[in-house]
Design a protein that fits this description.
The protein has 230 residues and is of the alpha/beta class. It is built from ten helices and six strands, in the order βαααααβααβαβαββα. Strands 3-2-1-4-5-6 form a six-stranded parallel sheet. The longest helix has 16 residues, at 70-85. The relative contact order is 0.18. The model has no long low-confidence stretch (mean pLDDT 96).
Amino acid sequence: MTLAALIFDVDGTLAETEEAHRHAFNLSFAEAGLGWHWDRDTYRRLLRTTGGKERMRRYAQETGQPAPDVTALHARKTETYARLLAQGLALRPGVADLVTAARAAGLRLAVATTTSAPNVQALARACWDRDADQVFDVIAAGDEVPRKKPAADIYTLALARLGLPAGAALAFEDSRNGVLAARGAGLRVVVTPALYTEAEDFTGALAVLPSLEPAHWPEPLATALAGVRA
């Protein structure tokens, strides 16, 4: 089937954002007077649970502490994260070229992520200086589905909004949960491991690449973009 669309995860895939997320969580915890602090090892473990609100609930449960108002705290964290990204953020190597080449080849672009829509917007503004809906044709984000990754729901939603079968799209991920979600929706998935996911198991991926630079493009991507360069 002819490739018609690319579907991207956001955090860790488009940019190395997890340290900014961790810092935003810790700033928000301090402002709320919680006494919580997530170091890198703690955050790496918590990332196995998708969704910021879900991570806070899990941490409270694990530590035997009363759960805070996670909805309000997460909203505050999202505002803090946007401020941090506004100070500067770089796309991962090859992402900008791939997006430009895909557009030139007539492919559609989508996002399928468990992060919130405001976080997608903050990244698009920081990295492209454009609104997210000017970069992507479809955005499936946050709490729009009942189950987050590794469930396939967010990818199923993205495909429905694209109006395409799974065979006409290619997913891009950085995590084991992301691979499971994409494969669960019937998608082929390309992985570029990130800072917090490099040791994970990516069984089922079409390819595991060091970056999305053109020299690493796998089939069917290379065929779809043959002769097209950013």
